[in-house]
Design goal:
Blueprint: H1 2-18, E1 32-34, E2 51-53, E3 56-58, E4 62-64, H2 74-88, E5 91-93, H3 98-102, H4 108-116, E6 122-127, H5 128-133, H6 136-145, E7 150-155, H7 157-162, H8 173-183, E8 188-192, H9 199-207, E9 212-214, H10 223-233, H11 237-246, H12 253-263, E10 268-271, H13 278-286, E11 291-294, H14 296-303, H15 307-324, H16 330-334, E12 338-340, H17 344-350
Parallel strand pairs: 4-5, 4-11, 5-6, 6-7, 7-8, 8-9, 9-10, 10-11
Antiparallel strand pairs: 1-12, 2-3
Helix pairs in contact: 1-10, 2-4, 2-15, 9-12, 10-11, 13-15, 14-15
The chain binds flavin mononucleotide (FMN).
Length: about 350
């Protein structure tokens, strides 16, 4: 069993790096236009993008989305991600910790993050199927393993349905969540993995006490695509067929941020899924996200040895764009005018949403 989880993680990483695993949907950030301010009356040095979340101070509203741990070689990845998160003052998540519960010798592939990121915001991680199955004490162990500030529970239903060995039952999640929220000593972030969260889901989860959402919308890494490649490798024609039919499924990230912001106005929204440029980051913040998550480009930067350069460049570009919009901080940015084009404009109208 542990061999399976580990092996799967390595296959996911390999396929993500080797194949085109993004799209076909777009994030719809291309439908959002921020207005240039030719007279910003700001000094780049005065910009302040810092925030406090889960008791941790972040210099930038960025988080490395949970990806890895749980297989040989992944300890080194997590150590590097932790070092860069600590030095830049951004958050990081680990990948699903299921493998470490199945095989204790893999714990260090996750716990290594706290060694190198003692002051950073760290998110523990588990999938919906395991979350339904595990009892509360096991869930608590995931948090302890990385001394996490919060637990991300990822909703990977579309992936499970297309995964050759995936789960098919997702009953009982909301009830379990309600119970665990009351007992777990840290907050829970409900996180998608690339198909987005709707206003209806956000509302139902808010009703049981969820205050933190990571929308992980469509337009970036597509897990159905990744599983389609895996099914192909295994000659699993049935799963390959389902995956091919599900490729265009999901809520584009920009739409999902607006959905969740509308139905859970007091929640904290993490925007992720297809965040590829500094402009995507700034647009996500303007649409109402408090924090922005990035996965695949960070993995690629790690493998090409450009992790720090990539993140420094991104950070400098975010600041430049903030200044060009005339915003000293995210509160300022939220008050700036924007123009929304179709299809996002039409989505907002038909779904009865307000542009934040
Ligand atoms: C190789 C890889 C492994 C991932 N593993 C996990 C995981 O274990 N748990 C999780 O919540 N999300 C996982 N994700 C999903 C990301 O956290 C993120 O939600 C998704 O990739 C969308 O972001 P992106 O478009 O920036 O890649 C993984 C992503 C990648 C690329």
């Amino acid at each position: 069993m542990s061999y399976d989880s580990s092996n799967r993680k390595l296959e996911h990483i390999e396929i993500s790096l080797r194949e085109d695993v993004e799209g076909p949907l777009k994030t719809w950030f291309e439908c959002v236009h921020l207005i240039h301010n030719a007279v910003p009356e700001l000094d780049l040095n005065d910009l302040d993008l810092s925030l406090t979340l889960f008791g941790r101070r972040l210099n930038l509203p960025l988080v490395i989305s949970g990806m890895t741990g749980g297989a040989s070689g992944t300890e080194g990845i997590n150590a590097e991600l932790a070092k860069v998160a600590e030095s830049l003052g951004i958050g990081l998540g680990v990948g699903s910790q299921r493998a470490a519960l199945e095989n204790g010798s893999l714990r260090h592939t996750y716990s290594v993050v706290r060694e190198y990121a003692p002051n950073s915001l760290v998110l523990a991680n588990i999938g919906i199927s395991e979350f339904i199955r595990y009892d509360i004490s096991l869930i608590g162990k995931l948090v302890d393993m990385v001394v996490a500030d919060a637990l991300a529970v990822h909703l990977n239903v579309a992936q499970e349905l297309t995964q050759p060995e995936g789960s098919h039952s997702f009953k009982g999640f909301t009830k379990k969540l309600e119970a665990v929220l009351k007992e777990l000593p840290v907050p829970i972030v409900v996180k998608e993995v690339g198909f987005g969260i709707s206003k209806e889901v956000a509302e139902a989860l808010s009703d049981v006490g969820v205050k933190y959402f990571d929308v992980a919308g469509a337009g970036g890494t597509n897990w159905v695509k990744i599983e389609m490649f895996r099914a192909k490798l295994r000659n699993d024609r049935a799963k390959e067929r389902i995956a091919s039919e599900l490729l265009g499924w999901g809520i584009p990230t920009a739409a999902s941020i607006i959905e969740v912001r509308n139905s859970a106005p007091n929640s904290v929204v993490i925007a992720s899924g297809g965040i590829r440029t500094a402009l995507d980051v700034v647009k996500a913040l303007r649409l109402g996200a408090e924090l922005v998550g990035i996965a695949l480009p960070i993995l690629k930067a790690y493998y090409s040895g450009t992790l720090t350069t990539y993140l420094m460049g991104l950070s400098n570009s975010i600041k430049a764009l903030m200044l060009l919009s005339g915003s000293r901080n995210v509160d300022d940015l939220r008050r700036k005018p924007i123009v929304i084009y179709d299809p996002l404009k039409e989505w907002v109208v038909q779904r009865g949403l307000k542009i934040p």
